[in-house]
Amino acid sequence: MTQQKVKTPRKIGPVVDWLMNNGALVGLVVLCVALFIATPHFLTVQNLLNVGIQAATVAILAFGMTFVIVTAGIDLSVGSVAAFAAMVSAYSFSELGLPGWLTVIVGLGIGLLAGLLSGLSIAYGKLPAFIATLAMMSIARGATLVLSQGSPIPSAPAVNWMGSTKAGVPVPILMMVLAGLVCWFILSRTVIGRSMYAIGGNEEAARLSGLPVKKILVVVYGLSGIFAGLAGLVMTGRLSSAQPQAAVGYELDAIAAVVIGGASLAGGSGKATGTLIGAILLAVIRNGLNLMNVSSFWQQIVIGCVIALAVGFDVIRNKTERA
Known about the structure:
Elements (H helix, E strand, L loop, with lengths): L13 H8 L1 H16 L6 H26 L7 H17 L5 H24 L5 H20 L4 E2 L2 H4 L4 E2 L2 E2 H19 L1 H11 L1 H6 L4 H27 L1 E2 L7 H11 L11 H20 L4 H27 L1
Antiparallel strand pairs: 1-4, 2-3
């Protein structure tokens, strides 16, 4: 009888392994050094604060998206849900006369409701996540336009505070950090967070092991909706009004930030710190290109190339781990 060779896992060095798992961080550092050399205006306190403010809305959306992608899902509605939550919050203040603090709860509640509806459609209605969230994207954007009649609506002072600066620190950055800590805690310190990774790794195995997969998926999309609502309020606070066309296309930036941060679209991986780095990397790219007076049209091309590289890097990493 001939002996069959057993395929052993390929060993890679610790340095290469670290680079494979922290590619976004390395890319961010290299990019910052390059921009520092290219323009003297990049590494100024004011500009770095501007980068943080620009990253805040996308990062908050992306933290919610991280839960979804970890479970091998997708949520195309977060940008429209953010706009709708902000518009309902502003409408409840300007037209209904609700107290400012209550309009914040209303905005978060609208985000939660939209997320739960998507989650129920996916978990119990058996709709593909792509279709369910695409439908919610259209519904939320249409409802935003109907409610506002296409015009901005002033927001409450409690919402405007989220876009202000206190003691020299922009509040949007503080909200981004808070949202990141919540995302990190849920993913790494709770049972439901570990269940998300299990579902993303193998949904059928998770179900057979006794996990309530359907209920967890509803919670996942509900969390995505809450984070979208918070992002909408932060964005509205910066403008002091809810805009009917706010956050158009932001869902793509949120997905990009999560993927650039090291999460796999196949599910089972992803972390809050990686998502934060991905969102900051996107903001740094846009900021650097603006400082160098690069056309916004070319900026879209550059961002697209970065996303393609990130996904390609994820494919190579997965093949290396399986080899």
